[in-house]
């Protein structure tokens, strides 16, 4: 992997309620200047809103001049904001709340 760019964001509040997407770090638009293929990775696609917003952000920055692929560990099927990722580990029915160890860290 020649370059890794972190775009940190979330769409759920502390009560696990869906809100608008909040971005926690900035990135330099020039980070994507010579990119031809971009892989966006998320731990979980639940509502699909964060993946949708990140992909749209990258499309705007790159002016649609690169291929964007998506990947995640867990995918909740049949969601309104985005289709299935290009690469995934597993899908689930979405009935239960998944909690990851890194979510215990305040960002």
Question: Can you offer a commentary on this structure?
Answer:
By secondary structure, the protein is an alpha/beta fold. It contains one helix and five strands, in the order E-E-E-H-E-E. The mean pLDDT is 82.
- Our measurement of the CA-to-CA distance between the termini, rounded to an integer number of angstroms, reads 26 Å
Helix segment tally? 1
- Major sheet: order of its strands? 3-4-5
How is the biggest beta sheet arranged? 3 strands, parallel
Uncertain runs are none
Q: In total, how many beta strands?
A: 5
What percent of residues are in strands? 25-35%
**What sequence of helices (H) and strands (E) makes up the elements?**
EEEHEE
User: What is the C-alpha radius of gyration, as a whole number of Å?
Assistant: 14 Å
Structural class: alpha/beta
Q: What would the principal axes of the Cα set say about the shape?
A: globular
How confident overall, as mean pLDDT?
82
Q: Give the fraction of residues assigned to helices.
A: 10-25%
